[in-house]
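Posting this for the archive.
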Amino acid sequence: MSPTHLKVPPPRTHESCLAIREVLDRVGDKWSVLVVVSLTGGRRRFNELRRSIEGISQRMLTLTLKALERDGLVTRTVYPTIPPKVEYELTELGRTLLVSITALAEWAKVQRPAIQAARATYDRKHVGVMEEAAELVEKPTKKRVAS
């Protein structure tokens, strides 16, 4: 189906805009999508997740998992062992998000060369403007000396 055949009505109400913003806030952050994708294969322990997501800190993983759990996308199961065993898993709702994430990831892979070309074209056109702006910011201002 081509984009011209999509029948997606524009958001018209405050509620629909709010719903879109809330979801994009969650899945648009740096780590949430990576955590969701890492949980695709099933339950995982915290340290398994941390090792599978390059660059994520323990604190950021904790905050991301809590936010995903709050939104109903992830469940946290604590087993009464010593030390406690904790596992994370996608909920049914979280699994429905994978469809959209997968589609977006596929689009990004296919369109990346076109996006890079557009950026290069833009940068070539605007390099003079950007350099002038940088010079204005860096140019020292002359101060009057009181006599």
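The first strand starts at residue 44 and ends at 45. The mean pLDDT is 85.
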